[in-house]
């Protein structure tokens, strides 16, 4: 998969992941076949590339400005672990909550297994409870002049 040297292999894997994340942040999901295997598994379930992309499209339908910001990256051979901060403005139904216009910020942890130069398996944990809580917060009360 990557060149023989561990240092080069690590830098190649990091560059691969950063390019993948840039495509996601550009919402250029038509580019994901460059990065994701056709038969990708997510959390132990074969979703396939179409299912993987559909999941990302659902997120950006609800949060058109959604962004994944890389905070930490660990690479070990054919595994990549990432800690991300996700942000976006809620403009459509998500997790059963209609659009609120609120800006959200959550944490996500993901581990990727690479095979044949593509993401073959993903295990991800997003903090959906914190996201739901942010979406369901009462609207701020307008201040009244004294």
Structure description:
With 146 residues, this protein is of the alpha+beta class. The radius of gyration is 17 Å and the shape is elongated. It has a single domain (6-135), classed as Nuclear Transport Factor 2, Chain: A (Roll). The mean pLDDT is 91. The chain contains 3 helices and 6 strands, in the order H-E-E-H-E-E-E-E-H.
Task: List the topology elements.
Blueprint: H1 6-25, E1 36-42, E2 45-46, H2 48-62, E3 67-76, E4 79-89, E5 103-115, E6 118-126, H3 128-135
Parallel strand pairs: 1-6
Antiparallel strand pairs: 1-2, 3-4, 4-5, 5-6
Spatial strand order of the main sheet: 2-1-6-5-4-3
How much of the sequence lies in strands comes to 35-45%
- Top CATH class: Alpha Beta
Low-confidence stretches: none
Would you tell me the overall average pLDDT? 91
- Please give the alpha-carbon distance between the first and last residues: 68 Å
Count of extended strands: 6
| Helix vs. strand class | alpha+beta
Q: What order do the helices and strands follow?
A: HEEHEEEEH
> What is the CATH topology classification name?
Nuclear Transport Factor 2, Chain: A
| Overall tally of structural domains | 1
Main beta-sheet annotation: 6 strands, mixed
- Helical content band: 25-40%
The gyration radius over C-alpha positions equals 17 Å
Question: What's the architecture, going by CATH?
Answer: Roll
Shape: elongated
- In DSSP terms, counting alpha (H) and pi (I) runs of 4 or more, how many helices? 3
Overview in brief:
With 146 residues, the chain is an alpha+beta fold. The protein is 29% helix and 36% strand. The protein contains three helices and six strands; from the N terminus they run αββαββββα.
